[in-house]
Design goal:
Elements (H helix, E strand, L loop, with lengths): L9 E2 L10 H13 L10 H14 L7 E4 L5 H6 L6 E5 L2 H10 L6 E5 L13 E5 L7 H14 L3 E7 L9 H12 L3 E5 L2 E7 L1
Parallel strand pairs: 1-4, 2-3, 2-5, 3-4, 5-6
Antiparallel strand pairs: 6-8, 7-8
Helix pairs in contact: 5-6
């Protein structure tokens, strides 16, 4: 199976019918049971290059209120936090949340919340939203719901980072971004080896 995901201290009641599905939740939980860095975010040259490109697309900030959906173990959130006056990082896997809290423990402006998008999105008005390796875990209708939330709530940049290879989900990365574009309009796309970054300006 081909699995990839991108997210930081408040517990929310996750609705299991939303992102991800039960089999995805079980798979991700199994990966995090074996390692708190299942995709080698801390050590992989590929991930380091992707994070570098992502931060370049995000820009220097400062951002008043940023949201990362799907923060994983917090490696990228740790790099993003100094650019934010407030950063809310969100994930739905308890082991990933614990790792993200450790990664951000010395960043008082950052908090990690437990929840699944789009059902548990917090009541923010973010001027930056980061979706790194998470969009294709949503069903098409959930991407539509997320897009509407972004349309209503986001007041700055939306950054979508996606693996461009095959997935075992209904949509691959490019397909998931295309679905989001139906609500947000076309973004600016930058293509790299194995991934793409799409920037939507709200």
């Amino acid at each position: 199976m081909s699995w990839r995901t991108g997210a930081s201290v408040i517990s929310l009641n996750i609705r299991r019918s939303s992102l991800p599905s039960r089999d995805v939740l079980d798979h991700l939980a199994g990966l995090y049971a074996a390692s708190d860095d299942p995709w080698q975010h801390r050590t992989s040259p590929y991930e380091a290059e992707k994070f570098k490109r992502t931060l370049a697309a995000i820009g220097p900030g400062p951002f008043a209120e940023a949201l990362e959906i799907g923060c994983g173990n917090g490696t990228l959130a740790r790099l993003l936090a100094p650019r934010c006056r407030r950063l809310v990082a969100m994930d739905c896997i308890p082991a990933a949340i614990r790792a993200a809290r450790r990664a951000l423990s010395d960043q008082p402006q950052a908090e990690v919340i437990e929840g699944a998008a789009p059902a548990d999105l917090p009541p923010l008005r973010p001027d930056l939203v980061l979706l790194s390796e998470v969009l294709y875990f949503l069903q098409p209708a959930e991407i539509d719901q997320l897009g509407q939330w972004l349309l209503d709530r986001a007041r700055g940049r939306v950054i979508a980072v996606n693996w461009t290879g095959p997935t075992d989900e209904p949509l691959d990365g490019p397909g998931a971004v295309a679905r989001l574009s139906r609500t947000l309009g076309e973004g600016v796309t930058s293509a790299f080896h194995g991934f793409r970054i799409d920037v939507f300006s709200r």
